[in-house]
Fold these 2 entries.
Entry 1:
Amino acid sequence: MNQRYFAIRVFGCQMNVYDADRLRETLTSRGWAEGGEGDADFVIFVTCSVRDKAEQKVLSELGKYRASWEDCGKPRIALLGCMAARTGAEVAKKFPWIRVVAGPENLGGVADAMEESYEGGAPRLITGDTPELSCVPLSRSNRHKAYITIANGCDQFCAYCIVPYVRGRFKSRPPEDILKEAETLVRGGAAEITLLGQNVNTYGRDLTGSLAGYGFSRLLADTASIDGLKRLRYLTSHPSDFTDDILDVMTSRRNICPGINLPVQAGSDKVLREMNRRYTRNEYISLARGIRAALPHAALTTDLIVGFPGETEDEFEQSVSLLEEVRFDLVHTAAYSPREGTPAAKRADQIPVRERARRLVRINGIQTEISREINERMVGHKFEVLLDEPAPKGEGLLQGRTAADKVVLVSAPPDMSGKFRDVLITASSPWCLDGEII
Ligand code: SF4
């Protein structure tokens, strides 16, 4: 049989990067080779469904394969991930070059389905019970950094969110599997590991028997104890599940990075209630203060949605004032995007698109100034930086990160990638820092 080639296109979050890395490992171990799109027999789309824009992007990309498919019957497409779980079957009817469809819970059946698709017949829509995608992603796109998903799905059911409907209910992976994977990754050269989950703080709540009570802080401590692991991060937390024991472990382990993403989503109690976020503005603010007291050098980032249905001008201004009060290092902002199937999308009091856009511009303006002021204070200070990859812009520049996850640009040769160096910060912008190795 001729050598078969695949190419992978990843959209959305780090969990999709992790899934793509494991798929790559599985396929190469079965004799497939990774190639460019031009030579690919199969192009794999690992998709996102968090906002309509993400899905529209994939739909427009899928249309581009019509000519080559009608011309030579390739590449075949595997449509995977959250969008596949939500609308995969319908999308496959529109684009006959889609031969495999699988949601995040069914990735373990993808390699078989890709090979079976050459026997002809209808596209393979993978559902039901499929084996775990079990391999450790050693041939990753980034050798010194690795992600590990510690739990799949989510039980929070925030009113605007599609995740519980496409990634399923919350399910912790067994701790021994996660620790074994982390040890293998560290032995394989990973200096930094990020533990991933929609809400990592509830890790272990569904574990039973001898593992009952094995929670997130214990997993954090056990992972941090792995010999040779220089940096440990985790993503994403939920304010109503972020408990003191997590902070205790973070303050007692030097290799757990003081960068915390704690999505607040809104500043008004009424909007938080209607989002089903289960905490109040004041509870959030006191939690942020507690984190800063325990970890004075921590970087605190958040996610914020503007224009949630029914959000009045005054309630929006409460989000603005929350940013001014908490002063986050960085805020991932988004205008509300109705996701079919979620409670919020059914509401009649949708905010007009233009008004959502106006609020987004205003909130981004406010946060840009806050991030600028915070980063300006870092000029003249020295930080240990993990030099990572060539900077997206600028000749001879490497991009790296401080322990608190601040992006730093330094001029350094490519072979410094993966090295830790002390860097003196010489300049700043709202988004990143410039520095020189000392
Ligand atoms: S916690 Fe996050 S992933 Fe879960 S439903 Fe809420 S927004 Fe979605």
Note: The pocket of iron/sulfur cluster is lined by residues 154, 156-158, 161, 163-164, 198-199, 238 (CB under 6 Å).
Entry 2:
Amino acid sequence: MSRTWFSTLKDLLGEDYVEPGTPLCAGCGAIIALRLFHKALGGRVVWVNAAGCITLLIVYPFTPLKSSWMYTAMASAPAGAQGIRDALDILIEKERIPVEEDLKVVVVTGDGAASDIGLQSTSGAIHRGLDFYYLCYDNEAFGNTGFQYSAATPYGSRTATSPPTPLIPEGYRGRKKDLFEIWRAHKPPYVATVSPSHPMDMIRKIEKAEKYKGPKLFISISPCPPGWIIETMDTVKLAKLAVETGIWPLKEAVYGEVHHTYIPRRLKPVEEYLKIQGRFKHLFYPVRRDDVIAKIQREIEEYWRIVYDKELGKEDSGLT
Ligand code: SF4
């Protein structure tokens, strides 16, 4: 249960807090994020879970975790975290448990709870300055109920509730909610985006966040083989392509101040990311939808143009 420090990727081979053989789908990106997160935080953790895919991780009396776990309804994980944090603080104050036995309180939710159903209680917890971690595994839909669209579904994606039709051939017409910016507007000590394809970036961010008392929020892209219609072996490849095409920027904000932790020198065309996912197949077959692909590409370039100007200077722009 001791805390390990990580200098290189090799150090990640150390103690694991998630045993193999979970009931999640093969290739699930969410479990990779949770496993890395647990490694970085160490073993003294209590997870507070909003109902979602990861809820299946623990089917009583079986658990692959070496840490504690509490379920809540979808809307109320941060409220559950508040109760646990308060209880721990009271026990420590009354000297019923020593400070060394304190636990880190971590909410873990999918994007449906984070972006929508649980947003109100999350906003309240951030506003109250609750000392907790929050990990959102973003598979961009409601994964465990059959991949219906959520507020985090990107434009052009096929979901169970946004199939391409003759009237709406591009699939999902809405826009992905910008959860990073919603959280950042509250000015908590720490907010970051992470990816299972960049483990050291994730570990460094968690180590940095540990210095702050208060809400520490992380959003991890989480490729989902059955929903994204990808091979189980392509999870990390997809997460990496998301970063390299610029559709998933790696960044952090300390008390609202944004900094990108990885800036691609040349953005790969987003088509490379889209075309290997079945949920975007209708943009390429039977008729290629250049208009939709170009719109997605344009939005990415508009985002990065601002970042390049601000953080690199115009002459170093990765855009042609
Ligand atoms: S549906 Fe997707 S997110 Fe849910 S467990 Fe399966 S792979 Fe993971």
Note: The mean pLDDT is 94.
